[in-house]
Amino acid sequence: MRRHFREHRLKPFVLISRPVVPAAIEMLITVCDILPRVDLGGDRRRDFALVAGCAQALQLASPERIDDKLLDEFPRLQVIACTFRLPEHIDVAACTRRGIWVTNVAMRREDAEAEIEAARNILDVLSGDIPRGAVNEILLPAA
Predict the structure, then answer these.
(1) Superfamily for 13-126?
(2) What is the pLDDT of residues 26-47, one digit of tens each?
(3) Of 3, 46, 95, 131, which one's alpha carbon is 20 to 30 angstroms from that of 80?
């Protein structure tokens, strides 16, 4: 007996740095799967490597140091969406070289609105659109 399998396409994976409002999760899960939270600088190295290796999007709620060394752990990453004022702890040039969008949402918004806007930015990038909160507006080809 021959079995027929439908082509199954995996959803992109997003890693969120802290719990966010349900409305942001509801938006994301229509297109993405949410990865379990693991500290970026944590000592659970194996868990981090598994999660980072899958992540295509990262939503940050607090300034985390993102540099070339950390980006090496995220081979599939396409977007980092920040909900804090300035992404000064993120090496935007390194992200740009790798074809990773960095976005931020103005702090004047309430946390819930910022989290929802960051989720929209993630969905924009994953669908091939330019995100509204783009920091690196001119994206260079990946190295």
Answers:
(1) NAD(P)-binding Rossmann-like Domain (3.40.50.720)
(2) 999 999 999 877 665 555 556 6
(3) 46
